[in-house]
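Hi,

I'm pasting everything inline rather than attaching a file, because the server keeps stripping attachments. The sequence lines come first, and each chain or strand is labelled.
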Amino acid sequence: MLGGGAVIFASVGSMLPFERFVRAVDDWAGANPGQDVYIQIGDTEYEPRHAPFTRMMPMTEYRERLKSCDLFVAHVGMGSIMQALQLKKQMLMLPRLHRLGEHTTDHQLHTAARFGHIKGILIVDDVPALQREMSHLLAEPLETGEGISNSASPELIGHVQDFLAGVRPRH
Amino acid sequence: MAGKLRVLAIASGGGHWIELMRVRPAFDGHEVAWVSMFDNYASEVPGDRYYVVPDASRFDKLKMLAVFRKALGILWRERPDAIVTTGSFPMLAFLLIGRLMGAKTLWIDSIAQAEEMSSSGKLAKKIAHKTVCQWPEVAQAEGLECWGAVL
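And the predicted assembly:
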């Protein structure tokens, strides 16, 4: 169905396990042996059987993998979103749910509501949709926006500068 | 600019650290030391001092004690004039001890908190000199200012 050799980089972030996600991506990799899938699993207990994985990689390698992939699949973490926007990479995301013990709150659903409409981001509700869209987005990639800079808004930078300007050095 | 400060810029691993990196241009002209949770982040801040603390949730008193001990050592060594953090919970140890040692402290609640302020942010309101949010609605509900976002 798909052209072989597409590169998929999947990540649960770095702070908490995400069993449902890792199993879903690994199962997809098993069903699509021609595709090149790599997963950062963090503290997830389940170890992928089909896709190569690491628990956590250095930032430099992470950026390289993100830059060179055809599809980025991740939890709905702001770190993941901002890094992928910076590199103008299409991203497919599954939110962590509080009721399944995947995070301490449901803030990833709130993030999904705020960022789900942005160009280049597709957020899905469940594992079947995630797997379906992995195949779909390789065949028909999302259009990505113009990307973001690598720094905060001038407004925030200015406020923090002003805050620091009001501090008196003590030495 | 009033003068060159010693700034301690601190954040938990993952998104919080990415947020801190995006605030980084605001520290230009100051002497900055960094704190987060993974050794490999040191390569993001070459030439600056970088320290690692363990993660600790609100519910893990033993780990939080370890963070407090680490924070005490780091603050003793760095003597920062100002501490800036983008969260999360363990960083409150630095704000608390740092403030007692005379540093000005700033908590920027995470952009990931789009509906409600984080529980750590609500604690930060009582500890930090200044606590701000990145979403206007969240700031308003807490009686705080929105200073704009990392995005």
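The longest strand of chain A covers residues 7-11.

If the labels don't parse on your end, tell me and I'll reformat.
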